[in-house]
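note to self — DONT lose this again. spent like an hour looking for the file last time. sequence + predicted structure for the chain T wanted, 54 res
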Amino acid sequence: DWLAQNMVTEARAGFRAFNEGPKGNREVDFIKLRLMLAEGHPWDDKLVDAILPK
């Protein structure tokens, strides 16, 4: 169960960051991710867009 949940959330965001992020910055902002989740933000496209590297 844990692996399936991880693959559709954090891992998916990480794969997108690696594939779409700029060459020198291919990691999601995990601190921002944790803060947004702690504030009750749902895991949705807005959250993923907010944590992807620019």
